[in-house]
Amino acid sequence: MIDVVGLSVHFGGVVSLDQMTVQFPEGTCGLIGPNGAGKTTFFNVLSGFVRPRAGRVDAMGQDLLAMPDFKRARWGLRRTFQTEQAIEKLTVFDNVATVYEHSDNGGKAGRTAAVDEALEFVGLTAQAQQTVRTMAPGSVASSRWRGRSSASRSSSCSTSRGGVADAETAMLGRIIRSIPERVGATVILVDHDMSLVQACCDWTAVLDFAGCWLLAQPAKCCAIAM
Question: Which of 22, 35, 61, 226 could form a disulfide with 212 if both were Cys (CB 3.0 to 4.6 A apart)?
């Protein structure tokens, strides 16, 4: 569970988050809202990129904002970005392996086993030695999603599926939804595709005018947003 209380972020005279208060239950939760509502700012606060003016974020009993950013990563915070940062010249295996560079997973042998597990989970074992430039966009994104979620306690996810086929989007949705059960992490998903949010999330929060004003089941939130 992630408990956000009174979170405020100001950039000069611009109020990006204003006393944001919401409780994300365990499982997969959505965070939706119009452009400029503060969704990215919220993720930046969680990641340690932005220091809030006020507020508190308790994640599974830990004061997340009291940790330096590198300790948040070691604790188990994972984040994805809208633009996939895959290295085209590397193989699929090596791209996923970069996720584990700073994780405690038993050295080289443990890292290899973790990458193999991630690729098996998303059905890319046979493509492990292909270079990324030969892969469909959704395939590499899916594998790195699984890698980032490994050994995590909280995953903050912003997706962009430009050039990704509907079938790959559906596969990505299944992976996102299965992360809490597989690794025990709480997932917060930001996406403008309401069908993906409804398919993945147990609960969804609506962020607008720099504050959170509704936490409900996805169908209700999506109906309001649309």
Answer: 22
The pTM (predicted TM-score) of the whole model is 0.80
For 90-159, the DSSP string reads SBHHHHHHGGGTTS-SSHHHHHHHHHHHHHHHTT-GGGTTSBGGGS-HHHHHHHHHHHHHTT-SEEEEE-
pLDDT in tens, 128-173: 898 888 876 666 565 555 555 554 566 666 655 555 566 777 777 8
CA-CA distances (angstroms) from residue 142 to 169, 171, 193, 200? 9, 8, 17, 14
Structural contact between residues 197 and 30, judged by C-beta atoms closer than 8 angstroms: yes
In the numeric block, which tokens belong to residue 129?
């030695």
